[in-house]
Inverse folding.
């Protein structure tokens, strides 16, 4: 496989397990560059018959993936077509969900917006207590999440809690994320890597056809209408992007510190937007 062509990922392969490390400092922003490489990565891993388990992790201590780049979102068409299409982040997530191998997100920093949605698309999520943080802050800027969150979160945690995450736009620590069903487990930071590595190697030792069939069987019951839901989400997200209010708030967010290292640590710029709301 041509993994050497990937600029923002580092790889370690060990007996059927691929440990893929995102390395796009300072915040692993899901911008146009990382998004395109994620799309290619999914295709490469899907076609690699030597890989049975994929572990996705980050080289940036404070960030798993910050979120989707506002600049990339802002370049989308302001004229919304009646023809519904999947968003790139949705496509990336669906490829990982549908590939006949297991994907695991190991999260030790912030996973917000599109970063949270990438994690949600993985088959399993494990996070470090005291380090991992999850959020879907799009509505605060006037956006609708367009990478799968409105469809995946209710299936994981129920409607009420999903709306709390999607409309509250606040950080969810690993312990609460575990209780809500956002992630599989919240583990002490020093136990996270050994646990995930042991699980990945255990699954990778099993027959690949059995892994693929078991996963397909689970998905057929749990996600029968997910594709249709994703198309609805993409259309609603397109409508939100076309709003002049949203366009103004995205510009304000960038001026207030969005997509900078300090600004993304605590997302304080969202409270600034609330005070300067155009409506």
């Amino acid at each position: 496989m041509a993994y050497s062509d990937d600029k923002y990922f580092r790889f370690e392969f060990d007996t059927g397990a691929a440990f893929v490390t995102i390395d796009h400092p300072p915040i692993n922003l899901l911008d146009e560059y990382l998004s395109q490489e994620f799309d290619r990565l999914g295709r490469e891993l899907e076609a690699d018959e030597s890989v049975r388990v994929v572990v996705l992790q980050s080289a940036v201590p404070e960030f798993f993936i910050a979120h989707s780049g506002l600049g990339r979102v802002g370049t989308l068409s302001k004229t919304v077509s009646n023809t519904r299409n999947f968003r790139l982040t949705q496509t990336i997530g669906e490829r990982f969900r549908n590939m006949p191998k297991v994907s695991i997100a190991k999260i030790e920093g912030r996973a917000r917006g599109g970063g949270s949605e990438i994690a949600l698309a993985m088959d399993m999520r494990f996070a470090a207590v005291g380090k991992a943080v999850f959020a879907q802050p799009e509505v605060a800027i006037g956006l609708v999440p367009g990478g799968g969150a409105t469809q995946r979160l209710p299936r994981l945690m129920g409607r009420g809690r999903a709306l709390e995450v999607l409309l509250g736009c606040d950080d969810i620590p690993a312990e609460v994320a575990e209780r809500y069903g956002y992630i599989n487990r919240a583990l002490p930071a020093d136990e996270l890597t050994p646990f995930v590595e042991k699980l990945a190697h255990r699954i990778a030792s099993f027959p690949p056809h059995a892994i693929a069939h078991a996963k397909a069987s689970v998905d057929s019951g749990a996600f029968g209408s997910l594709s249709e839901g994703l198309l609805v989400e993409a259309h609603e997200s397109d409508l939100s992007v076309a709003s002049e209010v949203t366009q103004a708030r995205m510009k304000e967010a960038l001026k207030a510190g969005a997509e900078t290292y300090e600004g993304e640590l605590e997302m304080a710029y969202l409270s600034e937007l609330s005070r300067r709301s155009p409506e």
